[in-house]
């Protein structure tokens, strides 16, 4: 193919000039020839020495693991279009038919995303009090401890020992934006601290409770990592803490069971304070069952409340959503 031959010393300057002129042929590697460099060009260009030469094609880096994964064609259509990335760990949800090809899928992910060091498949649903899930190793390192960055916060955590979802980053930022400087926050189900440490940037004090000793261990480490001084980690059942403190804002990020803790949340929020309640709801009836529970507990306690906002946080299962209801307790 047609090429421009230039001296080694001028190569970089001329490469840029050829790009400016729009004639540098993409997809081929320039070639060294003694004291000269040859650039492939798409057509004749005046003012340069033109020669004929062969060039090696540049390998285009694939952007998506689905472009390179080697699996039978009949199951290719089942490949998920996305997966979670937590620091250097990838977690993918594979249908049963793809599990025999898990290793090939994991290796393709490692090849495309160079910063990922370990790939796991979800081994079941998030379950138990600690809300963790089983993971199946597919490729790369077997290490499950990772360092994740989100909303300017560094979070160290072990994906096999604690709950963490990177898909909640936007929701956490929403709550941060609603937080007023100087508030006292009660993070009832704190995990490794993605809400607590973020909100601590505005709040006066954050009480961060979790039942899982691993979550509290990582929370303590994350407090140090982020040089946060106003988060108080508390290991234990939130039922033992609630009512013993008064917060301006309460976060109830335990969507599966938050309704069971509404009494504790309402008893812990000051008059006029806000509760961020989370739950799961079917598409056709996202909020009303949850609101009925809020209403019932408020009535029992003799409190009034006002709903500030209802929102879909993210899809959770087919036709199911993780939802949020923000309400103010008037007492
Ligand atoms: C869905 S996770 C949320 C963690 C964290 N807020 C986040 O956004 O990553 C719920 C957390 O609540 C904790 N938990 C469950 N029941 C609890 C209880 N009765 N008291 C305190 N923590 C509890 C679990 O251990 C888990 O870490």
What's the alpha carbon Rg, rounded to whole Å?
A: 27 Å
Strand residue percentage: 25-35%
Please give the share of residues in helix.
Answer: 10-25%
- Per CATH, the architecture of the largest domain is 3-Layer(aba) Sandwich
CATH superfamily of the largest domain: Vaccinia Virus protein VP39
Number of strands: 17
Q: Tell me the overall shape.
A: elongated
Bound molecules: S-adenosylmethionine
Key features?
331 residues, alpha/beta, Alpha-Beta Plaits, GMP Synthetase, Chain A, domain 3, Rossmann fold, 3 domains, 7-stranded mixed sheet, 9 helices, 17 strands, 24% helix, 32% strand, elongated, binds S-adenosylmethionine
Brief sketch in words of this structure:
With 331 residues, the protein is α/β, with parallel strands linked by helices. Helix content is 24%, strand content 32%. Helix 8 crosses helix 9 (288-301).
Give an overview of the whole structure.
- 24% of the residues lie in helices and 32% in strands.
- It is α/β, with parallel strands linked by helices.
- It has 3 domains: 2-52, Alpha-Beta Plaits; 65-143, GMP Synthetase, Chain A, domain 3 (2-Layer Sandwich), CATH 3.30.300; 165-329, 3-Layer(aba) Sandwich (Rossmann fold), CATH 3.40.50.150.
- The strands form 4 sheets. The protein has a 7-stranded mixed sheet with strand order 13-12-11-14-15-17-16, sandwiched between helices. A 4-stranded antiparallel sheet has the order 2-3-1-4, with helices on one face. A 4-stranded mixed sheet has the order 5-6-7-8.
- The radius of gyration is 27 Å and the shape is elongated.
- The model has no long low-confidence stretch (mean pLDDT 95).
- It binds S-adenosylmethionine.
- The site of S-adenosylmethionine has 20 residues, from helix 6 and strand 12.
- S-adenosylmethionine binds next to helix 6 and strand 12.
């Amino acid at each position: 193919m047609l090429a421009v031959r230039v001296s080694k010393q001028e190569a970089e300057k001329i490469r840029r000039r050829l790009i400016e002129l729009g004639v540098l042929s993409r997809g081929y590697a320039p070639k060294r020839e003694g004291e000269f460099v040859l650039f492939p060009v798409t057509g004749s260009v005046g003012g340069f020495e033109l020669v004929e030469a062969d060039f090696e094609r540049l390998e285009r880096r694939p952007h998506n693991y689905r472009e390179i994964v080697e699996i039978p064609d009949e199951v290719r259509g089942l490949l998920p279009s996305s997966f979670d990335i937590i620091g250097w760990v990838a977690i993918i949800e594979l249908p049963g038919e793809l599990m025999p090809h898990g290793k090939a899928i994991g290796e393709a992910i490692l090849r495309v995303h160079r910063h990922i060091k370990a790939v796991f498949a979800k081994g079941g649903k998030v379950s138990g009090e600690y809300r963790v899930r089983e993971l199946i190793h597919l490729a790369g390192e077997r290490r499950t401890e990772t360092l994740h960055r989100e909303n300017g916060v560094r979070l160290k955590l072990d994906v096999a020992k604690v709950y963490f979802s990177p898909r909640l980053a936007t929701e956490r930022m929403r709550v941060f934006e609603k937080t007023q400087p100087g508030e006292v926050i009660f993070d009832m189900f704190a995990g490794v601290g993605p809400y607590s440490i973020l909100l601590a940037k505005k709040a006066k004090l954050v009480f961060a409770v979790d039942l899982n000793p691993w979550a509290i261990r990582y929370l303590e480490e994350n407090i140090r990592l982020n040089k946060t001084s106003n988060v108080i980690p508390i290991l234990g059942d939130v039922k033992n803490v609630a009512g013993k403190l008064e917060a301006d804002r309460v976060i109830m990020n335990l969507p599966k069971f938050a309704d069971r803790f509404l009494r504790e949340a309402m008893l812990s929020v000051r008059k006029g304070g806000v509760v961020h309640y989370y739950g799961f709801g079917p598409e056709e009836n996202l909020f009303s069952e949850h609101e009925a529970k809020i209403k019932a507990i408020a009535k029992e306690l003799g409190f009034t409340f006002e709903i500030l906002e209802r929102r879909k946080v993210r899809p959770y299962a087919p036709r199911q959503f993780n939802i949020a209801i923000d309400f103010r307790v008037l007492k």
